[in-house]
Design a protein that fits this description.
single chain, globular, 9 helices, about 0% strand, AhpD-like
């Protein structure tokens, strides 16, 4: 399935999402690797098989195998980290913030692509997962590396629209089934 086929699969009430997907796919605020790595990591995070397949088909034609692997890794490592760090932030007991994580996360230090791109993908995924501690951390890293506010917002807009598409596609399947 292609991104265009995915857009056509969206129902009429989701016209805004359909248009936003097309606009974001061609927007040049992010370079191709940042843009398609964000799309792919966010599609995986959204867990809709149709959305993952459509976006992966597009992303794999635009990204190196290393970037595809790193985008997948960003979705995976943030699935773990967002739960862990969100708990530490939300728990009323401050002791959890001082305890070592004791979780392996070496992919963050050596993702196989430009670290800034990986951090941007991690920021977008963390936005979907609602881990504001991780959002703050990754946002500070990419800002320090020179990523602009407009670029950060573009990545989060991709996250928002891909998540909406995943919600709509899976919701329609559930209602039909």
């Amino acid at each position: 399935m292609s991104l265009e086929a995915l857009r056509e699969q969206l129902p009429d009430y989701a016209k805004d999402i359909k248009l936003n997907l097309g606009n974001l796919a061609s927007e040049d605020i992010l370079d191709e690797q940042k843009r398609w790595g964000t799309f792919l990591s966010c599609a995986i995070t959204g867990r809709s098989p149709d959305v993952i397949k459509a976006i992966a088909a597009e992303a794999e034609s635009r990204l190196s195998p290393e970037a595809v692997r790193a985008a997948k890794a960003a979705a995976g490592i943030m699935a773990m980290n967002n739960v862990f760090y969100r708990f530490g932030h939300e728990a009323g007991n401050e002791v959890y913030k001082t305890m070592p994580a004791k979780l392996r996360m070496t992919i963050i230090g050596n993702p196989g692509v430009d670290k800034v791109d990986f951090e941007l993908w991690s920021l977008a995924v963390s936005s979907i997962n609602g881990c504001f501690m991780c959002v703050d951390s990754h946002e500070a890293i990419v800002r320090k590396a020179g990523v602009t506010s407009e670029q950060i917002q573009a990545a989060v807009r991709i996250a928002a629209v891909v998540q909406a598409a995943s919600t709509i596609i899976e919701g329609e399947k559930a209602l039909a089934g």
